[in-house]
Automatic annotation (TrEMBL):
Residues 4-186 form the Tr-type G domain. This is Elongation factor 4. It is an enzyme of class 3 (hydrolase). It comes from Shimia thalassica. The keyword Protein biosynthesis applies. Its EC number is 3.6.5.n1. Keywords: Cell membrane, Elongation factor, GTP-binding, Hydrolase, Membrane, Nucleotide-binding, Protein biosynthesis. Required for accurate and efficient protein synthesis under certain stress conditions. May act as a fidelity factor of the translation reaction, by catalyzing a one-codon backward translocation of tRNAs on improperly translocated ribosomes. Back-translocation proceeds from a post-translocation (POST) complex to a pre-translocation (PRE) complex, thus giving elongation factor G a second chance to translocate the tRNAs correctly. Binds to ribosomes in a GTP-dependent manner. Its main location: membrane. It is found in: Cell membrane. GO terms for biological process: positive regulation of translation. Pfam families: EFG_C, GTP_EFTU, GTP_EFTU_D2, LepA_C. It catalyses: GTP + H2O = GDP + phosphate + H(+). One of its GO terms (molecular function) is GTPase activity.
């Protein structure tokens, strides 16, 4: 295809502002899909999958559009994941296209993910076309939102296209703007192949499918290619494009976006951002800035029933095949036995994997407290990365600790600002900025990641009744006074409940945790002390008193079925508990005890 007739773009938006609906309309208006085959949210087979965690991936569609100038253009839309955990993938896929439609709900305005995503687009040097969506709604206020886009984002929004992705109004104008305002790609045909690996996922029929953007040269069926990051060679079996269903073709040239298959067995063998070139006489320079996505949040996953350890290993192995950003190694815990220490891109990623293991593989799990990676500087000058509080070395050898920090951006209606500031302050945040855009405030905080990984989202949502939006990026490491807090139940340390805390907060956290555990652990026939300690020093303590009577005694003696039911319920409850010394601790205690109210 002639480069001048290609436009590559993505759509950036806050969740629910209408990205998928707009994509559907663009596909429909151009006749890419016959009306009778049109179902709502075509590209969203992915969204559903995303909820189930199967692919948290970009998706793409190639559209032919006959513009008002009489020429036919090829429009390639790459959809990007919207969640902060996958920021790295968003920023990579942005580099595969030249422009973005910035979709803002004109009845709502700019939100935190609008900002985060538009910044990715700006970093990728995109031409940006603002689109005000949902103009059919009575609450739509295009002037106000256009002004807000100019104030907060700093791009000209006077000519923003007014659209209703629902009714189809403004869709033609959007297509014309894509052709007229977005630049055509550049690239050299007679140069060695240089293609960006934009995304990859597993397909049960075709094996691993690799989405590529050709920068220079030609990718042809049957050729041998080299993946530059790991220097592996592959034979290209198929080449194709998405319309949005797969259509096989013979080759892809500069500026084009499509896919290849090459009998690759595992997604793990492909890396987003990698450069693909010819086997021989390939491009001398790879695309810059490639780095594999790094896990930032770690936790232990243990089977509730220790007999299921091998099943868990099997489940984790399978999941890892299709998810290169998920890492794991075997872990042994004195309290929980055999399990795995797993690394994730963020909390959502953690939840997705944990859910899949429980639902698809039917293994009940104990999840230990999520932890970030601490840098421990030893007195001998060496540094180690601590992924698990249980591995904290002897303090006499430790010089100091550093923890990862983030820059968090929160947009919130005025009314809730006070609560948000308090929450951030409570989480050791340092306020960096506070500005207003209409009746919404934008606050920027420097926060320790470990204060955010646990229940920050939940808390933020609850204090703002769901009206706040939030986004963050990692900024670096900083020294602080951090200590390991251990928990002892019936005088036995429960390693899976160890956490790293700030020294100044340790007493408060310790007390809260002991109180929670006291409620979560059922009474036993004997008294159980529950303690939090730093080193050998106990900083908080609760005592769970002994059970006085048979629990069934409170059921009226005569009702046998009721009694039976209660006993059965207890039996079931027991299955979800683990024995620590003489004490049974229920599964949910490991997570609930760490939540802070
Ligand atoms: P996404 O999360 O950005 O992909 O948003 P969706 O496309 O899934 O849209 C979110 C919700 O807004 C859905 O219920 C859509 O039907 C609705 N929606 C999208 N565009 C419009 C529009 O122009 N007008 C109205 N009234 N609703 C819309
Ligand atoms: Mg969507």
């Amino acid at each position: 295809t002639d480069l001048n007739k290609i436009r590559n773009f993505s759509i950036v938006a806050h969740i629910d502002h209408g990205k998928s609906t707009l994509a559907d309309r663009l596909i429909q208006e151009t006749g890419t899909v016959e009306d009778r085959d049109m179902k709502a949210q075509l590209l969203d087979s992915m969204d559903i999958e995303r909820e189930r965690g199967i692919t948290i991936k970009a998706n793409t569609v190639r559209i032919d559009y006959e513009a008002d100038d009489g020429e036919t253009y090829v429009l390639n839309l790459i959809d990007t994941p919207g969640h902060v955990d996958f920021a790295y993938e968003v920023s990579r896929s942005m580099r595969a296209v030249e422009g973005s439609l910035l979709v803002v709900d004109s009845s709502q305005g700019v939100e935190a993910q609008t900002l985060a995503n538009v910044y990715h687009a700006m970093e990728a040097d995109h031409e940006i076309v603002p689109v005000l969506n949902k103009i059919d709604l009575p609450a739509s206020d295009c002037d106000r939102v256009a002004e807000q886009i100019e104030d907060v984002i700093g791009i000209d929004a006077t000519g923003a296209i007014q659209v209703s992705a629902k009714t189809g109004q403004g869709i033609h104008e959007t297509l014309e703007a894509i052709v007229k305002e977005l630049p055509a790609p550049t690239g050299t045909l007679d140069a060695p192949l240089k293609a960006m690996l934009v995304d990859s996922w597993y397909d049960s029929y075709l094996g691993v499918i690799v989405l590529v953007r050709i920068m220079d040269g030609t990718l042809k069926k049957g050729m041998k290619v080299r993946f530059m990051s790991n220097n592996t060679l592959h034979h290209v079996d198929r080449i194709g494009v998405f319309r949005p269903e797969m259509q096989m073709i013979e080759s892809l040239g500069p500026g084009e976006i499509g896919f290849l298959t090459a009998s690759i067995k595992q997604v793990r063998d492909t890396r987003v951002g990698d450069t693909i070139t010819n086997e021989r006489n390939g491009t001398p320079v790879a695309l810059d800035g490639f780095k594999p996505a790094q896990p930032v949040v770690f936790c232990g996953l243990f089977p509730v029933d220790s007999a299921e350890f091998e099943d868990l290993r099997d489940a984790i192995d399978k999941l890892a095949l299709n998810d290169a950003s998920f890492s794991f190694e075997m872990e042994t815990s004195a309290a929980l036995g055999f399990g795995f220490r797993c690394g994730f891109l963020g909390l959502l990623h953690l939840e997705v994997i944990r859910d899949r293991i429980e639902r698809e593989y039917n293994i009940e799990l104990i999840t230990t407290a999520p932890s970030v990676i601490y840098h421990i500087y030893m007195r001998d000058g060496s540094m180690l990365e601590l992924h698990n509080p249980a591995d904290m070395p002897d303090l006499t050898h430790v010089d100091h600790l550093e923890e990862p920090r983030i820059k968090a951006t929160i947009l919130v209606p005025d009314d809730y600002l006070g609560d948000v500031l308090k929450l951030c302050q409570d989480r050791r945040g340092i306020q960096e900025d506070l500005t207003y855009a209409g009746s919404r405030a934008m606050v920027v905080y420097d926060l320790p990641l470990n204060e955010v990984v646990f229940d920050f989202y939940d808390r933020l949502k609850s204090v703002t009744k769901g009206y706040a939006s939030f986004d963050y990026q990692m900024t670096g490491y900083r020294q602080d006074n951090l200590v390991k807090m251990s928990v002892l139940v019936n005088d036995e340390p429960v390693d899976a409940l160890s956490t790293m805390v700030h020294r100044d907060r340790a007493e408060e956290r310790g007390r809260a945790m002991c109180e929670k555990l006291k409620d979560l652990i059922p009474r036993h026939m004997f008294k159980i002390p529950i303690q939090a300690a730093i080193g050998g020093k106990v900083i908080a303590r609760e005592t769970l008193s002994a059970m006085r009577k048979d629990v069934t005694a409170k059921c009226y003696g005569g009702d046998a079925t009721r009694k039976k039911k209660l006993l059965e319920k207890q039996k079931k409850g027991k299955k979800k508990m683990r024995q620590f010394g003489q004490v049974n601790i229920p599964q949910e205690a490991f997570i609930s005890a760490l939540k802070m109210d």
